[in-house]
Amino acid sequence: MVKVLCQRCTFRGERFFTGLMHVGIFYGALTFDTMTVGHTIEGFLDGFLLFGRSGLGLVFSFAIDVAAFTVMAGVVFLAFRRFVIRPKSYTTTPGDSAIIYLLITLATATYLYFEAFAVAHHPETARWSFLGPWLAGLIGRSGLSPEAVAAHFKIAWWAHVVAVYGFIAYVPHSKYLHMFAGPFNVFLRRSTPSGELAPLDLEKSEVFGLEKLPDFTWKDNLDAFACMECGRCQDACPAFASDKPLSPKMIVFNMEKALLAGDKALVAKKRDDLAELVPATFTEGEIWTCTTCGACQKECPVEIEHIRKIVGARRSQVLMQSKFPQELNAFFRNVETNSNPWGLGFSKRAEWGEPLEVRHIKDVPEAEVLFWVGCMGAYDDGGKGIASSFVKVLRAAGVEFGTLGTEEKCCGDSARRLGNEYLFQSLAQENIALFKQYGVGKIVTVCPHGYNTLKHEYPKLLDFVPDLTEEDKAKLRSIEVVSHVELIRELIDKKRIALKAGAAESYTFHDPCYLGRHNGLTREPRQVLRAALAGKPKELARHGDDSFCCGAGGGLMWTEESLGTRINHLRTDEVIASGAPLAAAACPFCLTMLRDGLKDKGREDIAVQDIAQIVAGKLV
Q1: Is 442 part of a structural domain of the chain?
Q2: pLDDT of 564-576, one tens digit each?
Q3: How does pLDDT run across 375-410, given as a tens digit for each residue?
Q4: Quick one: pLDDT band at residue 292, thresholds 50, 70, 90?
Q5: Minimal CA–CA distance to 304: which of 248, 383, 361, 345?
Q6: CA-based angle 258:564:325, to the nearest 5?
Q7: Which site among 37, 135, 157, 259 is 20 to 30 Å from 294 CA-CA?
Q8: Does residue 429 have a pLDDT over 90?
Q9: Rounded CA separation 205/188 (Å)
């Protein structure tokens, strides 16, 4: 109701006036559609008036004239924007747009033609109309005979009927099909988090991922026909902004074209007659430059899901074709052999915690939480600093915790988003077995990617893990997974940790995509930072759930960014523009990308710290 009928979906940031014009056309179209019912019946029942002579009928006669203004204002604005300003987001189907604008104009003009002669022929039909009587006055002063007025009245009725029903007949063959498919797409949107991917049944599936058109779900197909071609997804995409070959809009647009082109083979279920999606519909450059940040999905007025289609294509390429960027050979091999992206030995996974005497969860029977360190926290220098700082915070609060030490495996987030579902499920099953073995009840992570995977994706895999009883599954599903940001905020609120008081410090905060946009945690980090630094952040140009990606998501942390501008450079430009001497982060991937970007820009004077490091430095 709110997104469609109240048109909330169209009012977004920099496109406010475009949204306003769309609202004018939307409500105008609803009014005209209602009027068309009455107009049609009028041709068969002489003297018929929609809503009769009631008060509603009077109001409606006024509303239809207002609608004529709003519709034409919207058409003029959008036509000017498309054909004169010509933004990149509007490059598709100019001919279709021109026909639609022409048909809307024709439908409006023929209605005014009809209304003018209707009032001239039957003055009592004017009711609260203000355009009809004015136009009828012009007709009266023209000297037309009553017979000519009556003839025009009939011609105008037919002209409007032909224009309106001709438009209706054209809609299914145009992008205006979104008027029907879009509301259904919004209503049938999934309720699960936007960052969650559905598992593959590797034992029973014959096709892994999206290889050909029949592999799309009905919801994928509905997405394709719901697309408005507005390009909001493209405008928000960090890959497109950095001159990569990916446009989320074109992913859906080309998918729709492929479905229409392959309609006969699809209906006849002739799979062999259909080309493989890559490269026939999606190019390799498109599917391998997506960071899965979710900005496209968040911006889409009709809630199209782009990520599932891109990752689905990746799955097919990796699992069925063994085609993927060359640098991923080392990544997949390292994770397969040593359960971490660097291929370092298992024995080194717990070395970061030895100076702090961090204990294994089995040796802490009274443990409140399992601290999931993650690969970055265990092996990366920047990540080790975050893990160590978080340990100090936990100890200051008296939180009993343990880790899985050398037993911990990579959570599999990057492997999954890079299409290697088999590797992901192998890692996940081993970690799930450890959760069961040690009776884990609560997990805290310092990495939003691990947080998203453990919280949303591991529970969906339990039906595919062998030797688990229903009781085991119930216990594993009940595991509480929290981000370190959530836990730190809780510790501050409950006064389990005390922070040094001081003057407000200048800082900014970069929202990680998998913490903020995908999981809705935007207030919590700011509450923690406000408590630690005594002031509000200097917000970046794009922040909160509108945050701009650092460039490391979707497994791209492990690939070479050789096309276009580096995404982290675009983000660090915003950090520099904020003028803040400190950039706070809440993700080890983001920490690395921001530090690297600032170093490349020669701005190492701007410090980058994780929230855990900032809080640890402020402990009393």
Answers
A1: yes
A2: 999 999 999 999 9
A3: 999 999 999 999 999 999 999 999 999 999 999 999
A4: very high
A5: 248
A6: 65
A7: 259
A8: yes
A9: 25
Residues 552 and 476 in one domain: no
Both tokens of 121, joined, read 């022929």
Task: Note the pLDDT of residue 11.
Answer: 66
Question: What count of Cα atoms within 13 Å lies in the side-chain half-sphere of residue 299?
Answer: 27
Q: Is-contact 295 238, C-beta < 8 A?
A: yes
| Whether the Cβ atoms of residue 195 and residue 54 lie closer than 8 Å to each other | no
| Residue for token pair 């290889």 | 211
| DSSP H or E run through 584 | strand 582-585
Per-chain mean pLDDT for the chain: 94
Q: Which domain, by its residues, includes 388? A: 333-487
Phi and psi torsions of 565, nearest 5°: -85, 150
d(CA 130, CA 373): 70
Reported as type and span, the H/E element at residue 444 is: strand 442-445
Which CATH number goes with the domain that contains 387?
1.20.1050
Residue 538 burial by CB count (10 A; 0-12/13-18/19+): exposed, middle or buried?
middle
Count structural domains, the chain. 4
Same domain, 346 and 436: yes
pTM of the shown model: 0.91
Q: How far is CA 150 from CA 47, 141, 147, 523, in A?
A: 14, 16, 5, 66
Residue 471: Cβ-neighbour burial (10 angstroms; 0-12, 13-18, 19+): exposed
Would residue 570 count as lying in a domain?
yes
**Which residue's structure tokens are 């006036």?**
17
Tokens read off for 591:
């920490």
Q: Is the pLDDT of residue 372 over 70?
A: yes
pLDDT of residue 27 exceeding 60: yes
Looking at the domain assignment, is residue 186 inside a domain?
no
Q: Are 14 and 163 contained in the same domain?
A: yes
Residues 12 and 94 in one domain: yes
Could you give the CA distance from residue 35 to residue 66 in angstroms, rounded to a whole number?
Answer: 13
Residue 576 lies in a domain: yes
Q: Let me know whether 167 and 24 are in one domain.
A: yes
